[in-house]
Structures are given as structure tokens and as C-alpha cells.
Design a protein that fits this description.
21% strand; 37% helix; homodimer; alpha/beta; 8-stranded mixed β-sheet; two-stranded antiparallel ribbon; Rossmann fold; 11 helices; 226 residues; 11 strands; globular
Chain lengths: 226, 226
Amino acid sequence: MKIGIIGGGTVGQTLATGFLGKGHEVVIGIREVTDAELRKNRNGARPLADWQSGSGGRVVTMTEAAAFGDVVVNATSGLASLQALARAHPADLTGKVLIDVANPLDFSKGMPPFLAHAYTGDTSLAEQIQNRFPEARVVKAFNTVAANAMVDAAFVPGEHDLLIAGNDPAAKDLVTALARGFGWANIADMGDLVGARAMEGLLPLWIRMWILANDPRVNIHLVRAA
Amino acid sequence: MKIGIIGGGTVGQTLATGFLGKGHEVVIGIREVTDAELRKNRNGARPLADWQSGSGGRVVTMTEAAAFGDVVVNATSGLASLQALARAHPADLTGKVLIDVANPLDFSKGMPPFLAHAYTGDTSLAEQIQNRFPEARVVKAFNTVAANAMVDAAFVPGEHDLLIAGNDPAAKDLVTALARGFGWANIADMGDLVGARAMEGLLPLWIRMWILANDPRVNIHLVRAA
């Protein structure tokens, strides 16, 4: 499958490498593909030039990545996601599964970051992306765990869950299959995209667990009687 | 122990009955103790007159409940909590453990309710209560599960967690002991009261799980490597 990942930070690179390891064709899209952009550190992630030379993937523009993918992944910073995705031609997203991995975290007041009001309440980032691209099949997924866990469920020991939400059942099935390839046994369907409110709302807990444990190998297991 | 519960709805009555069952002296505080108030349905909960006659507890004013309790419980609706607690004399809360069970949910747009912006971001209801009553020892607890589960952990089957947060370790120890009396084996300390942001932030997930399962016997288990 062709996968176009929008965003070249830690999350984008980790997912890209993960998908390449499963035999997919993968590109990472960034705003401008220049030598300086390829060589700089990206929020602590390694330079994309290094990723590109070692992985078999390619770095392209965000516009090209959206056009390339059968599946497109939003791995940008949540507060910049709508602006970044505006670089995709809407026609290039029509009918495609758009996996939204981002969280609308505001780091402007230091740690811990918090969810920006523009994306909370009776809305979520994923719903706003769906509204902006009504012909895309948005699936919220992977946003509630560390990047290493996204592509390897065993990064966190024990029984724990990956949450997904989306309006299109077939799109969720496809994302579920991709997640199973990364070792996820427990995939909790949170229903339609309104479920993304609950998933993005988990970030303060997840960050809190990480800070208290000083270890990103944290997650939750959903417990239900029925 | 003397426990004063502010709020006579389902949560307040369930906690009151639970504490009475453990041998504590319990009062429920409401705004005005009139015959009409005692006989009306309270957001679907039974009339307080029935609770009072059957339980051995008493219904008093919020002001009196705050004065009565060695431990005071905020079991009011989250959006009304600060206004309700303003009926307590600050001196009556000085040094006392104040368990905040409330969630700042906005039901004005129907289901699902959502967390009101006034209490989210880099704040929480519990922190605002602590700011308003700096001499109280606020502990956020019990807010992440159904009322029936608060007083009986086995209401939800399997291994699952009660989360608590607060600035005063001894106050958290006291609340932990009370929770153990209700059968809680897994009590997850979320650190100081900033942890209440994560706990209140769980409500959209918890409500979503309840809606999807059509069953309030839902909770989470925290999974940590360390």
C-alpha cells in the first residue's frame, strides 16, 4: 500500500519506518524540501536526510505526500494540523483514509501541555479535519500512545488498548488491520468521530502518567462489564 | 468519622449511604432544607426524605454540612460547585480534607456533555476549589467512575483503577483508606492537584464508554512498565 505521511517529526518518522518495515511504500511530506530542511533536527527527531538515506522512504512536499498515499497520515503538531493539511489538494484526499494521529496540545505555558480550547468541548481536532475535508475518510488512531508504541504494541507490557474512531466503518477496518500489523491485539472502537473527543481528551492523563513514571511505556486498558 | 456531603443528587446519596454502611456519621447538605426540597426528585435520584428516613443520615444545609464534617465531600454538579461551596464558611473548611468528586460537565448542548472551557486547559475544577479555599486539603477522587462503583469497586468486574490527586499526602492517604473500605485495590496516585486535569479530562472517555456499552460498569486500568 502507498502511505503518505504529513509531518517529519518523531511521530512521522517512527510511523514511516514502521510502515516501511511492513512492506508498504512510504513518503514523508514536509512543507519545503530543501537541503537545510532535510539536515535540521526536527523537534528532537533525527534529520530527515538520515531517515531518507537509511530507510528506503522518500521525503517530498506535503502536497505530494497527500497525492501519493492511498492512505494519508496526519502526523503534524496538532495546533498546526489544519494549516499543514491545507497544503493537500482536496481532490487528493477524496475517498482516501486519512489517519489523524495528532493532538492539539498547547506547549506555550510549559509542561505539562494542555489541550487548546479551540479543539475541545463539543469538538475535536479530528472532527475539524473531517469538516475541512468532507470527502476524506478520517480515522482518529494512534494518538493516545507514544510513537514507539504506535508501531510496536509490545513497547508497553501487558494488556492495553489502542483506541480508534471514525465515521466510515471500512476505513476503521483498514486502520485496524494496519494496527494489527504493529502487534495491537486490543483495538477499542470508540464509534464515530465524536469518539475523537474522548481520545484527544486522554492526552492529559497519558502525559501525566509519563511524567509520574518518567517512562513513556504507559497506556490504559479499557474495562467493561458488557 | 464525621462526613459532610455537599449535594443531594445520586452521587451525594450513594456516597452518603456508602459511608454510613462503613459506620461513619454522615449528613447531606443542600441549599435550603424545606419540605418541598426534601420531597422532590433530584436529577433522577430519589427524594431526600426517603434517604433520610431509611439511612440513619440527616439532611442539613450546605453550610451546616461543611461545619459538621471532619471530611467534606463536594458532590454537587461541577458547573455549580464553586457557587455551592461558597455557602461553606471558609473557617469550617480550614485543615479539613475536601474530597472533590465533581466534574465540570456542560449538558447545555445535549448528549454527550463536554468539559466546560472555564475548567479546562491549564486548570481544573479541583484546582479552582483549592484556590478558593487555600486552607482546605483538596483531594480529587471518585470522579472517574459511576456512583455505584465509587462505593463498591466490584461494580465493575476485573482489574481497574481509582485515580486520586492532591497536594497533601496525608489527605490522600486518608482518602485512599476510605476508598479501600469500598473495595478499591488499585488506587493510582496522580500526584499533586495538577493531576486533576487528567482525571476530569477522563470524563469524555468514560461517558463514551458508557454510551457505547449502554452500561455504566466501565472504567480503565492504568498500564505502566515502570
